[in-house]
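Trying the structure run again after the queue cleared.
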Amino acid sequence: MAGTISPLAPKNIIELPPIEGVRFSGIEAGVKYKNRLDLMLMHFCAGSVMAGVFTKSLTRSAPVLHCQDILGGEGDDGIAILANSGNSNAFTGSAGNDATIACINELGARIGLNPSSIHMASTGVIGEVLAADRVIEGLDKAVAELSPDGSMNAAKAVMTTDTFPKTAFTNIDLDGVNVTISGFAKGSGMIAPDMATMLGFLATDANISQELLQRALTATTEKSFNAITVDSDMSTSDSVYLGATRKADMSEIIDANDPRFLTFQSALQNIMTNLAHQIIRDGEGASKFVTIEITGATSNASAKKIAMSVANSPLVKTAIAGEDPNWGRMVMAVGKAGEPADRDRLQIWIGDHLVAKNGAVHSEYQEPIAAAHMKGDNVNIRMDIGLGKGCFTVWTCDFTKRYIEINADYRS
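Done. Tokens:
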């Protein structure tokens, strides 16, 4: 783990329960780090299906491009995901692609899978070709240590500047059948919408079609991993996977109108949001967990752009770090978003305290009340645009000196 654990970290790290048909391992391969786990392997049994969402960056890494090509076309013998930390293998040209393919081919030979059924994810430094030989040297051990109970080592193996592993799970009842959804994620910096420098790995035993699994993952990503930002910087490597072993004793979910699908998607949303919140709570140098809620916009899309404008403003984020209720910076961030807004209809709350209304400071505003709210670990800012019914909530953190220190020393 990277240094002192974030002050916003959960009090307890959740141990994930086994899911029938999924095995995990996490080992030390020496890709970049010494004396820590840095190579993760997940194996899904025969008959499993996989869904995935990826960064929208135009400089995507070699592993991301490979995974986008094979997603949904995996064979029937099983599926594997290999992930390393310490090197993103991004912006590495044909050499980076060759390294990815070499690792996948070698794993396929060891685990008995066609390379077209193996995904790879890499996270870490950009611009350096992955040391495929180190990954390959670790494959025998990674395969040998696969276990239904290996999820915690797997979660630790994908960490970079993270200070704690991020885990979550839930059990749901689908017409009398107990189904589990669980997952872990990594992410701490270079976090922005349309994914982030984050990897997410989720699994379920639900019997669901690949099409609906993908539909559920895409929908829940929008209001979880695509609704967080630490520093507005979009990564080259983001990937989130959701695999279903289909081992639960239930008929297959093949219709989006099936009530079981709605229940499944709602539970998945809770897990995804939980993991997204943990990423923000581990934001590099973070001391405040910040919720930005926008209502009254002309559309949900407009509300999201305004919320991100506020959440990504360095002036807003440093004011929060300084526990200064400088609501003028929030007004500024709304105005620069490029979305419909009316000064005389805008309302702003810090916590439950109404700060501004009708284009001016509210007559009953008391700065000591707003300042007291800013001193807490959880800061809530709500802004009503007053033009429509559009709404969206974004989660972010403050900017502190520690963020600069972490990123100034990142390659050292």
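The chain has a mean pLDDT of 92. Worth checking whether this holds up in the mutant runs.
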